[in-house]
Write a structure and sequence with these properties.
The complex is a heterodimer of chains A (314) and B (311).
Chain A lengths: L2 E7 L3 H10 L10 H4 L3 H11 L1 E7 L10 H21 L4 E5 L6 H14 L4 E5 L1 E2 L2 E2 L6 H9 L3 E5 L19 H16 L1 H4 L4 E4 L10 H9 L11 H5 L3 E3 L6 H10 L5 E2 L9 H10 L5 H15 L6
Helix pairs in contact in A: 1-4, 3-12, 4-5, 5-6
Chain B lengths: L6 E7 L3 H7 L7 H4 L3 H11 L1 E7 L10 H21 L4 E5 L6 H14 L4 E5 L1 E2 L2 E2 L6 H9 L3 E5 L15 H19 L2 H4 L4 E4 L10 H8 L2 H6 L4 H5 L3 E3 L6 H10 L5 E2 L9 H9 L5 H15 L6
Parallel strand pairs in B: 1-2, 2-3, 3-4, 4-7, 7-8, 8-9, 9-10
Antiparallel strand pairs in B: 5-6
The chains are: A alpha/beta (314), B alpha/beta (311).
């Protein structure tokens, strides 16, 4: 077993209780069956199937801020401590991308320090937007400055945004809106100048970058039309080429052929979105149906993630 | 020397002066739209070897609250395109505008455009006030278009939900492509795509972002309620739609699209005046098409839908 899965969700009891209590008030997609049924044993079982050595645990959408800052701080702490226990109890099988109480900035700053210093978390998990503010928004500058100072690995997971939730009654937001929101936050980081200002942050974006790679020509057009090109001194591709992109829900020849033409293969990392999607085996099979060399498969499954997370080399 | 004109552009915008004058008090036109002239269109086409452009109205659209005004604006636009076609023989065809969501007015204009003006097809937007094309409201329109086996060209808008979200980014960058994906998905999963099999759909910008999200659509289509809406399968519908190359004439996007649909479904489009025809000719030349496939994308695929331009 060699694979490192950077996109693997866990559901600590505190999170389960909070989502259950939020009930219908919980933003879509809410507390769905795969989350309700989650256990560490099921995670490990799925990891065995596809050959995953280590999975980085994160809290999926709707996230831990369900309306109240104090409750969110408490819940972030409980989730992170539960994650740290899983990491300790299953040597090298789990890592942790810690949850924050954003958009509560002060609580989030405190939790970054606690998670990285005390719990030795492997990185921080953010969402693509908080209350319709994407990550390049100036509100998040203190958070990004702190993560930059710490050269943190930052895993960015999509979430619904009120404007674009439930637009089409036939299907949920995951189908189109999640990928779009990842693209929005990449665009926000790049074109606001945050990407080049906080260059020590090691970003991982989900789902092959949402839809950014397919819209690359548009991104290049936007770069040419910036009012303040000095915000992007090395150009849009320089920033896009240093971000990382996981393969969750895009382990398919069409999106992979696109992504690998936009960024070097060194930036592509294995991810599953467990307990959603087709699991570790489905992703491993899907990846191997794409056009990569053997050494590229090895890099995507393990080597590229190890550069970010060297402690899993052992 | 300019190349011999042979290309057919299915995505080319025009701005009739009377339409502009009527709309300008209430809506802003982008500078390149403001400056549009028919001579400018012809010059752009000549530089790139475009023989014929199928023209359509883009933003700010045709309906600002009043059905009566919308009918009048629509008629101005459709008649103006025919005047362009008369003044420049062989150079312009028309995807006719409709005053949607005015149902009666749209059915009347559709008949006028296709029967009297002999328009090449109908131009629709991907959504109208957050109703995407699979919505039940469109049934009477699609019944008629299906009966006529019409070509339906769709152009994205930035839906009201999604305006001004990320201030640093123009809405065309992310939101347009997304709205095309929403409408493709809406047509698929409401069953409209299968229900109106004779409509020949053309989607802008290489299908928006649909090709990159294909695995999401494939997985959704496996759910029994959706499988029932797609009796011939998801890929059958996606592979009969057509996709233009506007703003996506690069190897990343078209390489992805070609993994999903045959080259026969890909048509040259430019989005003029937002982008130039020559940029698309040059972009396509770097996409790895064989000479035969490139000719198909430039011309032959469009001719199968619009044989009258073969002369």
């Amino acid at each position: 077993m060699a694979i490192i899965d950077v996109h693997h969700h866990f559901v600590p009891a505190a999170y389960k209780d909070a989502l259950t209590a939020a009930g219908d008030a919980c933003p879509p997609p809410g507390f769905q069956a795969p989350l309700r049924q989650w256990s560490a044993a099921r995670s490990l079982e799925d990891m065995e199937k596809g050959g995953t050595a280590s999975a980085m645990l994160s809290i999926t959408t709707p996230g831990i801020h369900l309306g109240d800052d104090r409750a969110a701080r408490k819940l972030a702490r409980a989730c992170n401590e539960a994650g740290a226990r899983l990491v300790a109890d299953h040597k090298n099988r789990f890592g942790l991308f810690a949850a924050l109480s954003l958009p509560d900035i002060d609580g989030a700053l405190a939790e970054i320090a606690y998670a990285l210093d005390n719990l030795k978390a492997d990185g921080i998990g953010l969402y693509t937007n908080y209350r319709a503010k994407w990550l390049g928004h100036e509100d998040f500058a203190p958070i990004l400055a702190e993560l930059d100072a710490r050269k943190a690995v930052v895993f960015v997971h999509p979430t619904s945004v009120d404007c674009c939730s439930g637009l089409q009654p036939e299907y949920n937001d995951a189908t189109i809106e999640y990928g779009t929101d990842t693209t929005r936050t990449i665009g926000s980081l790049v074109f606001s100048g945050a990407a080049s200002r906080y260059r020590n942050i090691r970003w991982i974006f989900c789902h092959g970058g949402g839809t950014m790679p397919y819209l690359i020509e548009r991104f290049l057009t936007q770069a040419k039309r910036m009012d303040h090109p000095e915000l992007l001194p090395d150009g849009v591709l320089h920033e896009l080429h240093r971000f990382h992109y996981d393969i969750a829900q895009v382990a398919h020849p069409a999106p992979m052929s696109c992504l690998k033409r936009v960024v070097p293969t060194s930036q592509i990392v294995f991810g599953t979105d467990y307990p959603y999607g087709i699991g570790s085996l489905g992703h491993a099979k899907g990846l191997h149906a794409c056009e990569f060399t053997d050494s590229e498969f090895t890099a995507i499954e393990r080597g590229n993630a190890l550069r970010l997370l060297p402690r899993f080399a052992g | 020397m300019a190349p011999a004109p042979h290309i057919i552009d299915v995505h080319h915008h025009f701005v009739p002066p009377a339409y502009k004058a009527a709309v300008q008090p209430k809506r802003r036109f982008q500078p390149c739209m403001e400056a549009w002239t028919v001579q400018g269109s012809v010059e752009d086409m000549d530089k790139a070897g475009v023989a014929t452009a199928l023209v359509s109205i883009t933003l700010p659209g045709l309906h600002f609250g009043s059905n009566e005004e919308s009918r009048r604006l629509t008629r101005i636009c459709n008649d103006y395109a025919m005047e362009m076609a008369r003044n420049y023989p062989g150079r312009f065809g028309l995807f006719a505008a409709l005053p949607w969501p005015d149902v009666e007015g749209s059915l009347a204009e559709l008949a006028y455009a296709l029967d009297t003006l002999k328009a090449d097809g109908i131009g629709l937007y991907t959504s109208y006030d957050t109703k995407w094309l699979g919505h039940a409201d469109f049934a009477p329109l699609f019944e008629e278009l299906n009966r006529r086996k019409a070509v339906v060209y769709t152009h994205p808008v930035c839906a009201p939900c999604c305006q001004g979200l990320v201030p640093e980014i123009n809405e065309s960058i992310i939101e347009y492509g997304t709205d095309t994906t929403r409408t493709i998905s809406s047509l698929l999963f409401t069953g409209s795509a299968a229900r109106y099999p004779n409509i020949k759909w053309i989607f802008s910008h290489a299908g928006g972002t649909m090709p990159f999200l294909i695995e999401r659509l494939v997985n959704l289509a496996k759910a029994p309620p959706f499988a029932a809406k797609l009796p011939n399968g998801l890929m059958h519908e996606l592979q009969r739609f057509y996709y233009d190359t506007a703003q996506a004439s690069n190897p990343s996007s078209l390489g992805c699209l070609r993994t999903i649909v045959p080259t026969s479904q890909i048509m040259f489009g430019t989005d003029y005046p937002f982008r130039l025809s020559i940029e698309h000719v040059e972009g396509l030349a770097g996409c790895g098409f064989s000479a035969g496939d490139l000719k198909a994308v430039h011309r032959d695929n469009a001719l199968r839908l619009l044989p009258k331009w073969s002369r």
